[in-house]
């Protein structure tokens, strides 16, 4: 199987996923193997929602729609054009996936297979329904993938390298357990936004997408904002109001009530609007339904501080603050070349030989 075959297969997968969008499910007659997979995937989506209360219909479809837009032949060709693919004897790369948002490990899965290597997947118990089904679809549109994709629920065995994602605590375990294998080990990261006080209403409304999408559970979700001294939060809260129906989701509401009670009993100072709390805090990682904030005096000093703590940061949302910033509202819409932790997984996969 050559590179173009792999690209064509993933482009067909993207076309299959295009039937499942935030606007609803619409069957397309021209999709290959739809008789086998269309209704079955609807069932897997339902199972994913029932198994994990955070995987609502809206969030699952948002993830699927995002991947359908990325998995086009044009996007895939543009993504891979800078690499030299010369693997003659494929090795097996294991992937230990997180389960915080739907299909969160799909980019690693894609990167390993597009490189020409074999993949061994250990899924999170929180997200175990969608990917195996999509892998079966890949094997049907490109039979050469058969034997290159495997899943395990037990101990990882017979692999040559590993990509593992987890918390800071599990990363220490991963580093020890995989110390004899080439590896990418990912730890906790959070995303932040830098505000200047002159953001438009549209920018702040877009920021609400970065805060609330997937209930704030992703590493690309904004969990902390930096604001200038004497910042007035009214405009910020107005921008967030678009998401007020989120409080009707029971798991989110339970977290909101619990964290609010903790803050009140601890006599912490915080502001809230009935569905979101903001609290001044030096940490980057905030609880569900909470965004931390911190004041800054100097943008130059803030840049230095963020550079010193770059290993804790996934995305910086801003407007004109730094070269690698992400526009408001775009954190959950990464491109194929936007690698987690800025570690190029295709380059890593191509070194395993």
What's a quick, concise take on this entry?
One of its GO terms (biological process) is bioluminescence. This protein has helices spanning 3-17, 34-51, 57-70, 73-80, 106-115, 130-141, 168-177, 201-212, 234-240, 250-265, 299-308, 345-350; strands spanning 20-21, 24-25, 92-96, 118-122, 149-151, 161-165, 183-186, 190-194, 222-228, 270-272, 277-280, 290-296, 313-317.
What this model shows, in words?
With 353 residues, the protein is α/β, with parallel strands linked by helices. The chain folds into 2 domains: 185 residues, Aldehyde Dehydrogenase, Chain A, domain 1 (3-Layer(aba) Sandwich), CATH 3.40.605; 128 residues, 3-Layer(aba) Sandwich (Aldehyde Dehydrogenase, Chain A, domain 2), CATH 3.40.309.10. The strands form 3 sheets. The chain has a 6-stranded mixed sheet with strand order 10-11-12-9-8-13, sandwiched between helices. β4, α6 and β5 form a beta-alpha-beta unit. The radius of gyration is 21 Å and the shape is globular. It starts with a helix and ends with a helix. 37% of the residues are buried. One of its GO terms (molecular function) is acyl-CoA dehydrogenase activity.
